[in-house]
TrEMBL record:
Species assigned in the record: Flagellimonas marinaquae
Domain (PAS) ranges: 110-149
UniProt entry keywords in alphabetical sequence: ATP-binding, Kinase, Membrane, Nucleotide-binding, Transferase, Transmembrane, Transmembrane helix, Two-component regulatory system
UniProt GO BP: phosphorelay signal transduction system
E.C. number: 2.7.13.3
PANTHER family tied to this protein: C4-DICARBOXYLATE TRANSPORT SENSOR PROTEIN DCTB (PTHR43065:SF46), SENSOR HISTIDINE KINASE (PTHR43065)
UniProt catalytic activity: ATP + protein L-histidine = ADP + protein N-phospho-L-histidine
Name this polypeptide is given: histidine kinase
């Protein structure tokens, strides 16, 4: 409506200007000097009026946008003016101003809501730019670092020099663990970074979490599992020894007195010999068990070198293919790219792969169309990996948390330290081992290298 009235007034003014210009031209040709003077004055007044009319509208719109830019929503244009076009324009500007004010208020409320969530979050959150200026740090982070206020990452030098270096050299999507020590306590921090872009400015968002409690809980849980397995294995060995020893003692002691040799029967002596043989066998088993435990605790530091992934997998292929019979399971290795290299201890990782592949082949031994594939490659994060996939019966969710516990096994033979040893080797390499399984469909063990 405002635009329509504006256009009408513009057309009327332009028509008056055109008519006055024609009268002025006609007066010049006829030399009507009186008419010429009046038309010249009228033309000047009409031009001045048109300029004033346009400037008044432009000034209102300019004031309006300046007020919006400065977030000043108190600007109001009078709606009681006599000129209808200005009245409608003022109403429109006031209406738009009200809508923008309402949106601005909603955004402020939402921003305060999110700010409050970040402040109350149980994890530390910080954002800083390329120059190290901290744009936001929530109270939890300041409490974790025992430093406030945080304005620049250089202030972290006063907390810990090594912590400052981590923040200074942090790259997007990196994960770090850091132990912060002060006069009061030691805090185990987990740090994770994410890249952000705000108003064309590159920012780094770092999330800091105190995982000391979680580590304690995991450590306690691991000890409980280990002790449960150790107790089970030791009791299985000790129980027959105790039972047989008690039976043998009854042969040679009656009523608290030692039985004379003359009263011993040949069957008792034979049973004693057999019992001692069983005790010896059980003792040997217990010694093997302890030796396995020692081997788990004394894994040597990796002697790393560059190893071609293709050559590594070919060796595994040659070693493990010999275990297959014609027409049995399918076993294949893949390496992409072919020039992929790993900085590893070849003997240790080779032993890990042999153990995992052997387990995979055993799982598909009785499966129809069983297959085991070993694949090496680079994931989307740039990390190198090796995966061992099989389509055997899989691992149940109940077993998933137990398979890496030392001495835990579902097999009738074996010590149960293979996966635990593999996990320890990967930790010494700065990597990790993960497993996912869909029972009766597929199981994948993934070795990820730093």
């Amino acid at each position: 409506m405002a635009s329509r009235n504006f256009y009408i007034q513009m057309i009327i003014r332009v028509l008056f200007l055109t008519f006055t210009a024609l009268v002025l031209a006609f007066s010049v040709s006829k030399q009507w000097y009186f008419t010429l003077g009046i038309s010249a004055v009228a033309l000047i007044l009409l031009v001045f009026s048109l300029i004033t009319f346009l400037n008044r509208t432009n000034r209102k719109i300019a004031y309006f946008f300046d007020a919006i830019k400065n977030e000043d929503f108190t600007l109001r244009f009078p709606e009681g003016v006599t000129i209808e076009s200005f009245k409608e324009l003022n109403k429109s500007l006031n209406r738009v101003n009200g809508l923008i004010q309402e949106v601005h208020v909603q955004l402020q409320v939402r921003e305060q809501y999110y700010q409050e969530i970040l402040k109350q979050a149980s994890i530390g959150i910080m954002t800083y730019n390329d120059k190290g200026h901290i744009l936001f740090a929530n109270p939890t982070l300041e409490q974790l670092l025992d430093y406030t206020p945080l304005n620049h990452i250089k202030q972290l030098k006063q907390v810990d020099e090594n912590l400052y270096r981590i923040f200074k050299n942090f790259k997007p999507f990196e994960r770090k663990l850091f132990q912060l020590t002060n006069e009061r306590e030691q805090t185990q921090l987990a740090l994770k970074s994410t890249h952000l872009s705000l108003d064309g400015q590159s920012l780094l968002l770092v999330v800091v979490q105190d995982i000391h409690k979680e580590l304690d809980e995991k450590e306690t849980e691991s000890w409980v599992r280990l002790i449960r397995v150790l107790t089970h294995e030791i009791m299985n060995t000790i129980t027959p020894i105790a039972s047989i020893s008690d039976s043998i003692i009854k042969y040679y002691r009656k009523g608290g007195k030692i039985t004379p040799m003359a009263e011993l029967e040949e069957s008792q002596i034979n049973n004693t010999l057999k019992g001692l043989e069983v005790i010896k066998e059980q003792g040997s088993d217990l010694m093997d068990f302890v030796q396995s435990y020692r081997s788990l605790l004394h894994v040597p530091e990796p002697n790393k070198s560059l190893v071609k992934g293709k050559d590594l997998l070919e060796k595994i292929n040659v070693l493990m293919s010999a275990r297959l019979l014609d027409g049995e399971s399918e076993f294949k290795v893949f390496c992409k790219p072919e020039d992929l290299e790993f900085y590893i201890d070849e003997k240790q990782i080779g032993q890990v792969l042999i153990n995992l592949v052997k387990n995979a082949l055993q799982s598909v031994e009785y499966a129809d169309n069983g297959k085991v594939h070993v694949m090496a490659g680079i994931d989307t994060n740039g990390s190198k990996y090796i995966e061992i996939l099989d389509n055997g019966p899989g691992i149940s969710p109940e077993m998933m948390d137990e398979i890496f516990v030392p001495f835990f096994t579902t097999k009738s033979e074996g010590t149960g330290i293979g996966l635990s040893l593999s996990k320890r080797v990967m930790q010494l390499h700065g990597g990790n081992i993960q497993v996912r399984s869909i029972p009766k469909k597929e199981t994948v063990f993934r070795l990820t290298f730093a």
